[in-house]
Automatic annotation (TrEMBL):
Entry-linked Pfam families: LptC
Bilayer-crossing regions: 41-60
Gene that encodes the chain: lptC
Stored InterPro entries: LipoPS_assembly_LptC-rel
Protein's recorded name: LPS export ABC transporter periplasmic protein LptC
UniProt keyword annotations, A-Z: Membrane, Transmembrane, Transmembrane helix
Ranges where the record places region Disordered: 1-29
The organism of origin for this protein: Tianweitania sediminis
Organism lineage string: Bacteria, Pseudomonadati, Pseudomonadota, Alphaproteobacteria, Hyphomicrobiales
Domain of life, source organism: Bacteria
Length: 235
């Protein structure tokens, strides 16, 4: 009776055996699914903050205090100019927010439009998490409930998220944001670069267009995942 001996040269390498390959694909898909879930949660939050920082006080509850030094207020070329105006108040969840600007300009013939320069705002995302936003210039139209940003704006949250926009048109009534210029968003081990961004339905729909690139840092993603697992175990 003859016996058959397997030829080692004809055996599939360990890395290509079906069972191992399937397991590797499963692990890869699981990691990808986790990243997608993270982005689907984080990106709407970042997008909504962009608009909320400047016109949030139109729908946030009172009390609201606006402070400025009357001695630094003047009429120039038919416009009311206020130096270092400050806006402070509380959200419906009783979380504090604040905004300051180097200057606010209001046209006497069109009081619904306010131009703010060198803006620094701190707004709450949730209890214990805040976002800081700084922008060179923003024009707020109270009638149309819109904001026009024609200069760069930076946003950073206390839990590590950040966004940089070169410009933006925000329609708070419609819940939309559109920028035709490059945008960069970074979220705990991942970043997205795009030439154009549009947001609809108050952040439920986010579309990146034009030279879209996504970068992932596996080491940081794994660290974040391990940290989340540890927190869940403690709970």
């Amino acid at each position: 009776m003859s016996s058959t001996t397997a030829n080692p040269a004809l055996e599939a390498p360990e890395s290509l055996r079906p069972s191992d390959r399937g397991e590797a694909q499963f692990r890869s898909a699981t990691r990808h699914s986790g990243r997608v879930r993270m982005l689907k949660i984080a990106l709407p939050v970042v997008s909504l903050l962009i608009g909320a920082a400047f016109v949030g006080y139109s729908w946030l509850s009172s009390p609201v205090t606006i402070g400025f030094d009357l001695s630094s207020t003047a009429i120039r070329d038919g416009k009311l100019v206020m130096a270092e105006p400050k806006l402070e108040g509380y959200t419906t969840d009783n979380l504090p927010y604040a905004m300051t600007a180097a200057r606010a300009v209001q046209d006497a013939g069109n009081t619904s439009v306010i131009e703010l320069e060198d803006i620094d705002a701190t707004v709450p995302i949730s209890d214990g998490t805040t976002a800081r936003i700084d922008a060179r210039r923003a024009v707020y139209d109270r009638v149309s409930n819109t904001i026009q940003l024609n200069d760069p704006m930076n946003l950073s949250t206390s839990d590590g998220k950040s966004a940089t926009l070169q410009s933006a048109s925000i329609n708070m009534a419609a819940g939309t944001l559109v920028t035709e210029h490059p945008v960069v968003i970074r979220i705990n081990g991942a970043s997205i670069d795009a030439g154009r961004l549009s947001v609809a339905e108050n952040g439920k729909v986010i579309v990146f267009e034009d030279r879209v690139q996504m970068h992932l840092d596996p080491g940081r993603l794994n660290a974040e995942r391990a940290g989340d697992a540890g927190e869940n175990a403690d709970d």
